[in-house]
Amino acid sequence: MSEDELAGGGDLPSASSTSQWGALYQQGRRQWQVDQEFSAFYRDTVRMLVAFLVNQGANVADAADIAQQSMMKAYQRWDEIQHPRPWVFRVASHDLVRKFSDVREEPVEEVPEPTSLLPRPDDAAEWECRQEALRMLEGLPIRQRQVLAWTFSGFTPSEIAEELRLSPAAVRASLKKARRKVTERFRRWEEGQ
Predict the structure, then answer these.
(1) Helix (H) or strand (E) segment spanning residue 151
(2) CB–CB of 47/10 below 8 Å?
(3) 23: which of 4, 55, 120, 135 is 20 to 30 A away, CA to CA?
């Protein structure tokens, strides 16, 4: 019997194939970690993102679609993104503005199909009805509504200014005007009750 046969011959992996397996293992382990990080981020953020878009004037179905698309973009660029929460809110906000810029579609009476973000679409109408505050926001100028939506989602005026590329003073001024208008509308609404 030869030494190769005693040593297992060609059955033992070579040093180069061992390093390839090690690299594949590390790559798989890193992908698993990325998937775990992103899954936690998704669960913690997606509902707030949908509400953020609704606060800016999107209907619930469109907000869910835009949120899902924004999350897919975030997943694809996960290793590049340093601050994922503001990044995904900014991307979703830009996508919503683009949607508003397109020719507006006529609303359809049909209930949208169930999705993971909107498992019972008929409940969406009920949820929207409970959001009396949203009606208070209607008619506000886009910038004021946008600044309020960012504020409702927990961002500070400085963070909003950075994300929208405005000065902090401009953000605070828009916020002040929006609050004043909403307060007036709420007062009128209470008087009408």
Answers:
(1) helix 142-152
(2) no
(3) 4
Q: Is the pTM of this model over 0.70?
A: no
Look-up: residue for tokens 């469109």?
62
Radius of gyration for the chain, computed over Cα atoms and rounded to the nearest angstrom: 25
Contacts of 4 by beta carbon, 8 Å cutoff, 6+ apart:
10
Question: What pLDDT, on a 0 to 100 scale, did the predictor assign at position 28?
Answer: 80
Mean pLDDT per 10-residue interval, the chain, length 193 residues: 51 66 79 89 93 88 93 93 94 90 59 63 56 69 88 90 92 92 80 72
What are the DSSP E strand ranges found in 52-131? none
- Pick from 173, 118, 144: which is nearest to 55 by CA? 144
pLDDT for residue 117: 63
Looking at residue 169, what is its pLDDT?
94
- C-beta pairs of 86-92 under 8 Å, 24+ apart in sequence: 86/155, 86/159, 86/162, 86/163, 88/45, 88/49, 89/49, 89/52, 89/150, 89/153, 89/155, 89/163, 90/163, 92/49, 92/52, 92/53, 92/66, 92/67
CB atoms within 10 A of CB 40: 10
For CA atoms 19, 20, 22, 26, the dihedral sign is positive
